[in-house]
UniProtKB/TrEMBL annotation:
Pfam families: Cys_Met_Meta_PP. The modification N6-(pyridoxal phosphate)lysine is found at K187. SUPFAM superfamilies: PLP-dependent transferases. InterPro entries: Cys/Met-Metab_PyrdxlP-dep_enz, Cys_b_lyase_bac, PyrdxlP-dep_Trfase, PyrdxlP-dep_Trfase_major, PyrdxlP-dep_Trfase_small. It comes from Candidatus Vidania fulgoroideorum. Keywords: Lyase, Pyridoxal phosphate. Its cofactor is pyridoxal 5'-phosphate. It catalyses: L,L-cystathionine + H2O = L-homocysteine + pyruvate + NH4(+). Belongs to the trans-sulfuration enzymes family. One of its GO terms (molecular function) is pyridoxal phosphate binding. This is Cystathionine beta-lyase.
Length: 354
């Protein structure tokens, strides 16, 4: 049975298609027992969302968090101790890097950055507990050697974590051998730019026990209403990603053809072998370094692309980044008609040329 069919028919409450919002701090038990649940752990609406994510991620366990960053920090706090080491890609999500820098001072752990072509020999004697993969990266879209990373992590018994936000519902890192799949549900799972949430998906019972224990001891919970909203939008996630993919490919192709003379460099994952084999669909992101145009003016002249962080929602976004002393513009193509987005970009380019 395909994922979408399982998703639609995976209901905890068979009376209704949509699970109702159940708010609770106190959860009643019919009989006295050892583990009485508290509302912070969630109700049926939470379980419904966790179950759906398990289907899409092909996981046994999923836990929910107030944001993607909250899920990231919980992974660290669940596993790391003093003098333990984390390996991070050098294209890592900056709040993730900020988090581990902070934790290194608090609990005394260490971290190292590895590059796309890393062979990991220099790390064999380190006390490594976590290796992190973010592929493609969300700005320059690097994809490291996944097979090499998994071989290294298995040999050294390192917990491997894959940030699957870019490929939400498309790629299944746990099926390839990763221990943990992390998602920022804020993006594609929400799809509407109006809520924050993250998740951790796992197959290994022992690792999940550590994750849940840390979650409980931090008093982490999520909004019942937000669970309801993601439960509604989750069914269309792949359909939306296909539109983002089409829009980004059409627009990038047009820019490279129409405005080739003003492009210094650009980043997209389309030609990478791992991407073409395992992921296949773009998240709507690509990054360009323009020349002979005023970048600030270009961004300000755009009408349909809004300036703001994040992506994965209905509306197109634009952000500016400095990479190797050059200014780059990252485009996120939303669900608007791609021809309208092309017109918007074209107008902004002509107005901002030197």
């Amino acid at each position: 049975m395909k994922k979408i069919t399982k998703l639609i028919h995976s209901k905890l409450d068979k009376k209704y298609f949509s699970n109702p919002i159940t708010r609770a701090s106190t959860i009643f038990c019919k009989k006295i027992k050892k583990n009485i649940k508290y509302g912070l752990e969630g109700t049926e609406i939470n379980r419904s969302l966790e179950n759906k994510i398990n289907i899409l991620e092909k996981s046994n366990y999923t836990s929910l968090y107030p944001s993607g960053l909250s899920a990231i920090s919980n992974i660290y706090l669940s596993i790391l101790k003093r003098n333990d080491t984390v390996l991070l890609p050098n294209n890592i999500y900056q709040p993730n890097l900020r988090c581990i820098k902070w934790l290194s001072k608090i609990i005394g752990c260490k971290y190292y950055l590895y590059n796309k072509k890393e062979n990991f020999k220099k790390f064999y004697k380190k006390k490594i507990k976590i290796i992190w993969v973010e592929a493609p990266g969300s700005i320059t879209f690097e994809i490291p050697n996944i097979k090499k990373i998994l071989k290294f992590s298995k040999k050294k018994k390192i917990t491997s974590v894959f940030d699957n936000t870019y490929s939400s519902s498309i790629y299944n890192p746990l099926s390839d051998g990763f221990d943990i799949s992390l998602l920022a549900l804020t993006k594609f799972y929400s799809g509407n730019n109006d809520l924050l949430m993250g998740s951790i998906s796992i197959n290994n019972k022992k690792i999940n026990k550590k994750i849940i224990n840390s979650r409980k001891n931090q008093g982490i919970g999520v909004s019942f209403e937000d669970c309801f909203l993601i439960n509604r939008s989750i069914f269309t996630i792949k359909d939306r990603i296909l539109i983002h993919d089409k829009n980004s490919r059409k627009i990038l192709k047009w820019i490279l053809k129409k405005h080739k003379k003003i492009i210094d460099n650009y980043y997209c994952p389309f030609k990478d072998n791992f991407f073409r084999k395992k992921i296949k669909y773009s998240s709507g992101l690509f990054t360009i370094c323009f020349k002979n145009i005023n970048i600030n003016k270009f961004i300000n002249y755009l009408k349909l692309f809004k300036i703001g962080f994040s992506w994965g929602g209905v509306i197109s976004l634009i952000m500016k980044y400095k990479i190797k002393n050059k200014l780059y513009v990252r485009f996120y193509t939303g669900l608007e008609n791609y021809k309208d987005l092309i017109k918007d970009i074209n107008t902004a380019i002509f107005k901002s040329r030197y």
